[in-house]
Amino acid sequence: MTATEWWRQAVGYEIYPQSFFDSNHDGIGDLPGIQSKVAYLQSLGVDFVWLASFYPSGHVDSGYDVTDYRNVDPQFGTLADFDALVTALHAVNIKVVIDLALNHTSIQHPWFQAAQRDRTSAYHDYYIWRDSDGTTLPNNWESVFGTSAWTPNPATGEAYLHSFAPEQPDLNWENPAVQREMADIVQWWANRHVDGFRFDGVTHLKKCADFADVAHPRTDYYRDLAGVGPYLAALRPVLQRNHLVAIGEAGGIDMATAKQWLDPENGYFDLLLEFDHVHFWETAEPKLPVADLRANMSKWQVALEGYAWNALFIENHDLPRAVSYYGDGTAYPRRSAQALGMWYMLMKGTPFIYQGQELGLPNAHFKRLDDYRDLDSLNYYHRQLAAGVPETAILAQLATKSRDNARTPLPWTPDEYGGFSTHQPWIGLTPGLATRNVATEQQDPHSVLTFYQQLIQFKKAIPALQSGRYELIDTQDNQLYVYRRTLNGDNWQVVVNMSSQVATTQEFDLTASELILTNLRVDADSDDQVIQPWEARLYHLRKVEQ
Ligand code: NOJ
């Protein structure tokens, strides 16, 4: 590992600026608010933060419709605030990764404003157009957010493509000028001392060349993954020159392409955020198919061994809360949050924690349409209603799957608004404030927060848990996830019961081992082979005397 590969030994923490801490009492989190909580990040033990999109935006897709890539949205502060935050984080050795939406801008971005007025503008070719009389759209492609991917632009007699909302026109990466613009933007932020980027939506960059109808209108027209490579290559020199970590959001990527993109010599990324493992709950029955998870996680662990590095995560600002989608938020809220933490963090790779995950926050589970802010959730509601689905059923679905479930203010104290703000926040809080908040959990040696702090310490202190080889112990059941991490003969074993029933196993021998960390109190059942619901154990396997 070289000094520039610091991220291999690091634990990351995603901050959603709207909901971290509000320093100016307007109900919206901001950059000075983050700066005022640096000591908390330090106490957690994280090594870098990933700041979700904070650029000036049209506020249609929560900051991912950027109007200016070289500034900070006034609701979050100023560039001076950004610089001060970077300085404060660097002072305590926390690095800073920022988000960059590569696939699209806002319709309010000056490039698009010029492009939509005039076909001869130099910016017209920054976007993707097809002739359209305004009534017939170019093809059947649909956006991720559920409408046609085309919006007519009467001023030029065309329609423009948008893989997401109509207010997020897709950039034309075929155009070398677009590639140069993005490389310049990366350099501009490197000059402000950021340590890396999380590149948004990279699997969307290349569209089908023939612009024909496709069988699956929502997905088939992008994900020409081979075609994305040359675009990404345009960013490589600036990333390398500045020693920046490159993290790609790569939904739907296949293993062959992932290995190409992570190639240590000629690849484009250091880490890829891939999503299969956090989506089983949507289709699987039972919703936590442990056998599928074993297969999926192990596939990536094994394939990247000795070659590249995994990004490990179970939450972000686009997902519901893990304790609600895989855990048992009813019978075992604390224990299942802790067990999920140990399960993913001690595998091989760089763990990412999403704000509030370390508190075991469950879904916000809003009750009324008015509670929702996320465009995707609102669109979903209206589409389903138009399709005749009863409102109660739609609201029940949103309470389970909406992105707003995880976008609520971080609760710092049990006080009003969770101590996040003195003003009513832009979105409601997650229920359970009295016990699930930073101050209360910091005082409790058995809290999810305390357990996460311990996990982070172990992950960083024990070389085998960082760079040791991963080996699955296949228990062939649908409850246990057991794996080993081994480095130079030093063996560690993680045993997690990912179910709400007791699990019994003879599949592995724990006699020659020492229990180092567990989420069960000492008075719990101590039979090694009987694993309590959502119990998680970290063992150090003793070397057996010859
Ligand atoms: C991924 C971002 O994380 C998400 O919040 C956003 O809606 C889409 N990309 C589009 O930018």
% residues in beta strands: 15-25%
Give the bound compounds.
1-deoxynojirimycin
Mean pLDDT: 95
Summed up, the helix count is 17
Largest sheet: 8 strands, parallel
CATH architecture of the largest domain: Alpha-Beta Barrel
The helix/strand class is: alpha/beta
Strand order of the largest sheet: 9-8-7-3-2-1-11-10
| Low-pLDDT segments, ≥5 res | none
- What is CATH's topology name of the largest domain? TIM Barrel
Q: Class of the largest domain in CATH?
A: Alpha Beta
Helix percent band: 25-40%
Principal-axes shape call: globular
Cα(first) to Cα(last) distance is 34 Å
CATH level-4 homologous superfamily of the largest domain: Glycosidases
Instruction: Report the strand count.
Output: 18
Number of domains: 4
Radius of gyration equals: 24 Å
What does this structure look like?
The two termini are 34 Å apart. The chain is 28% helix and 15% strand. It has four domains: 3-102 and 175-365 and 410-454, TIM Barrel (Alpha-Beta Barrel); 110-161, Oligo-1,6-glucosidase, domain 2 (Alpha-Beta Complex), CATH 3.90.400; 367-401, no CATH class; 466-541, Immunoglobulin-like. The model has no long low-confidence stretch (mean pLDDT 95). It has 546 residues and is of the alpha/beta class. It has 17 helices and 18 strands. The strands form four sheets. An eight-stranded parallel sheet has the order 9-8-7-3-2-1-11-10, with helices on one face. A five-stranded antiparallel sheet has the order 12-13-14-18-16. The protein binds 1-deoxynojirimycin. This is Alpha-amylase. Belongs to the glycosyl hydrolase 13 family. Residues 14-407 form the Glycosyl hydrolase family 13 catalytic domain.
